[in-house]
Design a protein that fits this description.
- One of its GO terms (biological process) is DNA restriction-modification system.
- Belongs to the N(4)/N(6)-methyltransferase family.
- GO terms for molecular function: DNA binding; N-methyltransferase activity; site-specific DNA-methyltransferase (adenine-specific) activity.
- This protein is α/β, with parallel strands linked by helices and about 400 residues long.
- Helix 1 packs antiparallel against helix 6 and helix 2 crosses helix 3.
- The chain contains 14 helices and 9 strands.
- The chain folds into 2 domains: about 150 residues, Ferritin (Up-down Bundle); about 230 residues, Vaccinia Virus protein VP39 (Rossmann fold).
- Strand 2, helix 10 and strand 3 form a beta-alpha-beta unit.
- The two termini are about 35 Å apart.
- Helix content is about 45%, strand content about 10%.
- The chain is globular.
- The protein has a 7-stranded mixed β-sheet with strand order 3-2-1-4-7-9-8, sandwiched between helices. It has a two-stranded antiparallel sheet with strand order 5-6.
């Protein structure tokens, strides 16, 4: 598929989905998850068809012998998941309109999760009951037909590209709320190219929908020798449960091994990140206040270069909060990489580059220690969540 053909396919799919949204009566934020779930299901069908001859050959070879196993065991080994007949996209597409199609799609999602541990409790299910709207306009049936336009022999990369495209479109439609899970791909690609990753473990402590992992995997794949396995494992932390699910689907669509944990990076450290990772990347929230000082001040991942504090001679309040979370993130990045061989890049509010008081003291320590190699200013209005300019460290 040429770039022009792919662009036309993505634009056509989005136009169909966006047009049908009006019939569903759903807001963009309510419509995104079921749509992305259908893209995932279409991907699962396409990938499974590619592996099915191999799966059946292995199954039939051992059938009736002492080494016989269930077919789903072979499927998970070969393909990563198992699709029973009722979970096939074509089966759902060909159901008559008299059937309860939302219920059938829900069951298909449950079937996929049953045999795929990494996707447990991840795929959308009950969301499909709302897609058809109150007027019975069969929107879900029409959406199934629309996404059938993705060819069966489509590569994993193209499915991943379509998924990212829809994430971007939904983020734009949602405005500021959408920016919480999506970073513009141009910014992510720049960060990846600066880091020039080759292999290893990558950590994103505010991973959103997982775009940093996807771009990193694409970069490594495009630079490795043909036939060599992609030696990359992703570790993500995301505080919003719905976004965790988007990230897990994104990893599966792009064939990336990894773990996404629902947690708040200020207060949780699920991967024992200090000095662990080859690469750290993120677009964390800017200028966060209200973080309890007592919860972060004794953690090496936050205090190695100093914890942001209000400078005052008065007695400290037991409930004192960090005045601004920006330098907590910078500390976290600087301490999560492997000594002098690890690399990190993060997007940060432009104001962090010349902040005063305790932040200035931390910045001096970071610069004198040689941790910061470059800082690039980004223009205003690049992100849905903020209009102010940002920097990449």
């Amino acid at each position: 598929m040429t770039n022009a053909e792919l662009k036309n396919l993505k634009d056509t799919l989005w136009l169909s989905a966006d047009t049908l949204r009006a019939d569903s009566g759903l807001k963009s934020s309510e419509y995104a998850t079921p749509i992305l779930g259908l893209i995932f299901l279409r991907f699962a069908e396409s990938k499974y068809k590619q592996y099915e001859p191999e799966i059946l050959a292995e199954y039939n070879k051992l059938k009736g012998t002492r080494m016989e196993r269930e077919i789903h065991e072979f499927a998970v080994e070969k393909c990563g998941f198992y699709l029973p007949d009722e979970a096939r996209y074509d089966y759902l597409l060909n159901l008559p309109e008299t059937e309860n199609i939302p219920e059938k799609v829900k069951q298909a999602m449950i079937d996929v999760e049953t045999y795929t541990k990494d996707l447990e409790d991840t795929l959308p299910k009950d969301e499909y009951y709302a897609v058809d709207g109150k007027d019975g306009k069969a929107v879900l049936k029409k959406l199934l037909k629309a996404f059938k336009d993705i060819p069966d022999n489509t590569s994993i990369d193209i499915f991943g590209d379509i998924y990212e495209y829809f994430l971007g479109k939904f983020a734009l439609a949602e405005g500021q709320g959408g920016g919480e899970f999506f970073t513009p791909s141009t910014v992510v690609r720049y960060m990846v190219e600066v880091l020039n990753p080759t292999e290893g473990e990558i950590f994103d402590p505010a991973c959103g929908s997982g775009g940093m992992f996807v771009q990193t995997a694409h970069f490594i794949a495009s630079h490795k020798a043909k036939g060599n396995e992609l030696n990359l494992r992703a570790y993500g932390v995301e505080k919003t449960g719905a976004t965790v699910k988007l990230a897990k689907m994104n990893l599966a669509l792009n064939n990336i091994r990894g773990t996404i944990t629902e947690a708040n990076s200020y207060y949780n450290d699920p991967y024992n990140c200090f000095g662990r990772f080859d690469y750290v990347m993120a677009n964390p929230p800017f200028n966060v206040d209200g973080i309890e000082l007592s919860d972060v001040k004794d953690q090496p991942r936050f205090n190695t270069y100093g914890v942001p504090q209000n400078k005052s001679k008065t007695k400290k309040n037991a409930n004192e909060t960090v005045p601004n979370g920006n330098y907590l993130w910078i500390n976290l990045f600087a301490t999560s990489i492997k000594g002098k061989i690890g690399k990190a890049a993060l997007v940060m509010a432009n104001s962090a580059s010349d902040a005063g008081n305790s932040e200035k003291d931390i910045r001096i320590k970071l610069i004198e220690s040689g941790v910061i190699s470059q800082m690039v200013t980004l223009p205003s209005n690049m992100f849905n969540t903020v209009t102010l300019p940002a920097v990449v460290l």
